[in-house]
Amino acid sequence: MNYKILVDSCCDLPEEYRKQPHFIVVPLTIDLGGKTYVDDENLDVSEYLRKMKETPKAPQTACPSPEDYMKHFDGDEENIFIVTLSDQLSGSYNSAVLAKNLYNDENPNNNKHITIFNSFSASSAEVLIALKVEALAKAGESTESIDKKVNEYIDGMNTYFVLESLDNLRKNGRLNNVQALIANVLNIKPIMGANKDGTIKKLDQGRGIKKALNRMAEIIGEEGQQLSEKICVIAQCNCPERAKEFKEEILKRYSFKDVIIVSTAGISTTYAYDGGIVVAV
């Protein structure tokens, strides 16, 4: 199959996949303290994280424009698959849909098959979806089969995350100052998850990061099915050792097909913040 896979930059693809010609990352942008950052390979994530800590206001993100997607539609590839952030978190999905419609209007005789997958999640979940698309395309599945199987795959996925710091939630108003203060004083770490519609829910909490991560590992088992047939992706924000320890912990409990650790790029770093762990199964 002749294909390309477009992902927005909240998809924290491992470096070896980013180098493959059929993967294209379409960047979002971030406004922080009056400066605009493009979430691409040139972004110094460590420097961005430092600036985010120093800036009193929360960063503002902007999705790719339809034109940012459309410019990648030209070429010999007849099959284009796009994976985006949840439409509840960003306009990236809607922008990709508009790009497809505009392209088809402007090129009525084109032979492109363009499919857009709403991840209903972010970060590590987008990685799983992109890898699933690639596996099916390499196996020679038809476009109709890929569309069907990937949407079924998305329906069966679960995303979880634990935040080390609640500072960004306080800055953007999702937690008031009193709530954030109490959580910090008591060292409470929320365990969050994604609803099937792409919104965020609180699952539980732990006193301290270690207890919270252990509880998240338990929840993976409680909610997961046929884990031995699944890949788990762990996205870490500036805490590679913590991610390795969490990988070891879940492998003590469950037998996954594979467990992949990735580093957060700019958008996922904005959400996860320093020390955050985002897991998709």
From TrEMBL:
Gene3D superfamilies: 3.30.1180.10, degv family protein, Dihydroxyacetone kinase, domain 1
Keywords of this entry: Lipid-binding
Keyword ATP-binding part of the UniProt annotation: no
Pfam families cross-referenced by the UniProt entry: DegV
SUPFAM superfamilies, per the entry: DAK1/DegV-like
The keyword Repeat is annotated on this UniProt entry: no
Example of a GO MF term: lipid binding
Domain of life where this protein originates: Bacteria
Protein name (database record): DegV family protein with EDD domain
Organism: Natranaerovirga pectinivora
